[in-house]
Amino acid sequence: MDAIKLLKEKYPELKDEKMTYAGRLDPMAEGALIVLAGNAVYEKEKYLKLGKEYEGEILFGFETDTYDVLGMPKSVRQPTSISRTVLDGIIKKLEGETSLPLPPYSSYKIKGKPLFQWAREGKLSKIEIPIRKTKINSAKLLGIAEISDKNLMETIKQKISLIKGDFRQEEILSQWQKMLPQNSDRLGTVTFENKEEFQIAKIKINCSSGTYIRSIAHHLGKELKTGAILLSLKRTKVGNFDIKDSEKLKVIKIAFY
């Protein structure tokens, strides 16, 4: 809705047009977003079914209840050096038909109520979190890097400050600060022997609509027994609509008629 508001402000000819968007992005994510205007709004379902391409950063050594950095940290594990060969093999196994549980904090509805509402009310034990079948057309490990606890804390602060609304941000930030005290090698109750850096893997995923990259991050953490969460996410393509085109607003030209 913010994107639609900005477009209406920038392009006066869109001010009185019907407009909608096709395919949400997680609060933390950025990237290509299809906005439909005029009669194109009646073809929304067609655009919702388009495949997606993402580039994401996965942080190892942590788990949260949202599967990303905006959630409540609930586990810290001893970081170990992750083998690129091993990680690449696990990522490649995702290709093809795959089934992963939906993140507890997501908009999928059960009994008319979104999963995130069940989670907020502490009633997840009363339902069964669905397993979603999706197709991963390609999965690639782009690289592995390291981030210090100090830089990680600054990254988390920045991401939390950019999100609007009430999502427990004060409590979440407080917990991260307890776990990542700057200039210290102690995180919560776990001491990392002189190791102040954590590993981050950058991946590229081309997948069918409805795939949660957060679920993929969580899956990798389980497979490696280290815990893992999504640190950043960029949607680079929706169908044939590339992020490079969106920067030139070609998406608007195609969808507006």
How would you sum up this structure, described in words?
Helix 5 runs antiparallel to helix 6 (169-179). The chain is an alpha+beta fold and 257 residues long. The protein folds into two domains: 1-50 and 239-257, no CATH class; 51-101 and 134-238, 2-Layer Sandwich (Alpha-Beta Plaits). The two termini are 20 Å apart. The strands form five sheets. Strands 2, 4, 7, 10, 13, 14 and 15 form a seven-stranded mixed β-sheet that branches. A two-stranded antiparallel sheet has the order 1-3. The protein has a two-stranded antiparallel ribbon with strand order 5-6. The chain has nine helices and 15 strands.
SSE map:
Blueprint: H1 2-10, E1 19-22, E2 30-31, E3 34-37, H2 44-48, E4 52-60, E5 62-64, E6 73-76, H3 84-92, E7 96-101, E8 109-110, E9 113-114, H4 115-120, E10 131-148, H5 149-162, H6 169-179, E11 186-187, E12 190-191, E13 197-207, H7 213-224, E14 228-238, E15 241-242, H8 243-246, H9 250-255
Parallel strand pairs: 2-14
Antiparallel strand pairs: 1-3, 4-13, 4-14, 5-6, 7-10, 8-9, 10-13, 11-12, 14-15
Give the gist of this structure.
The chain is α+β, with helices and mostly antiparallel strands. The protein folds into two domains: 1-50 and 239-257, no CATH class; 51-101 and 134-238, Alpha-Beta Plaits, CATH 3.30.70. It is built from nine helices and 15 strands.
Q: Report the span from N to C terminus.
A: 20 Å
What is the percent of helical residues?
Answer: 25-40%
**Cα shape:** globular
**Topology as a string of helices (H) and strands (E):** HEEEHEEEHEEEHEHHEEEHEEHH
CATH topology of the largest domain: Alpha-Beta Plaits
Structural class assignment = alpha+beta
The oligomeric state is: single chain
CATH class of the largest domain: Alpha Beta
CATH architecture of the largest domain: 2-Layer Sandwich
In total, the number of strands is 15
Strand share of the residues? 25-35%
Instruction: Tell me the domain tally.
Output: 2
